[in-house]
Amino acid sequence: MTILCVRFQLPPVYEAALPGLLGLLEEFTPVVQALPPDGALADLRGAERYFGRTALELASVIRVRALALHGVDCVIGAGPGPMLARMALREARPGLTRAVPEGEVREFLAGRPVVALPGVGTRTARTLCEYGLDTLGRVAAAPLSTLQRLVGARTGRELHEKANGVDRGRVVPNAVSRSLATERPFGRDELDPGRHRRALLSAAGELGTRLRALDKVCRGLTLTVRYADRSATTRTRTLPEPTAHSAALTRAAYGLYEVLGLQRARVRSIALRAEGLDPAERASHQLTFDPVDEKARRIEEVADRARAKFGPHAVMPGTLAA
30 preceded by cis ω (within 30°)? Predict the structure, then answer.
């Protein structure tokens, strides 16, 4: 168990605290990968040898320091690789690290539904379930050739390996400033697609406002939908052109949501992350001669000036996007 997946229990819209918390992890290992808005992966292989402690013992120290120095609690999953650490995190609780020992990986995976595996979306899960492959244990026992006929050669091989506990992922150190994220939790598990779309509208509006305030544009958008059973689906889309335009971000977010094909899904929260940030001055904007688009951009400029003068709540994020 050398990989930790840490989720800091930050208040909403408090991503600014994440760099400091990443610095806390970097006191133990330089191999830290930010998972905005509130998480990180940490590879502790070298730290275990250096400090003479196990990953679980170091996880306890990290939790205590986060509370003492930042006033922030965290939940931690531990496993032999990043995928297993992420999956273990879903069962973690504050004060108790959920660990998956290397010798118990297959047992840990066997009874879980196929959608619990990172990278398995609704469509793939539906195809597998139609053939009785509704758990990871059954997927692991299925012949590789069968999986490849059902979902394709490459996807079938990856699915077979992951279901058997083969985790080829690695922790890639990155910079948290390369992305911005926001999350919209629901007060209760939400079934209504209309409320899902309103959450997306609000989140995309907030991201656009924050990007423009930083004079940044983003090249991609990632949607993460968390469900009542603590599983999650993540989809990423590269934008046609780098943008900080709220309407463009909203259209992309709606497109990502529609691809999921959710039907009666009990959604706990929706998160959007703007990725691949670049200075706005380096970005080019394709002229459309669309009066509606140009009007929306002018309204955004006015709203941004109002926020700068009267505060962030002068205009609610998302109210201007179409």
Answer: no
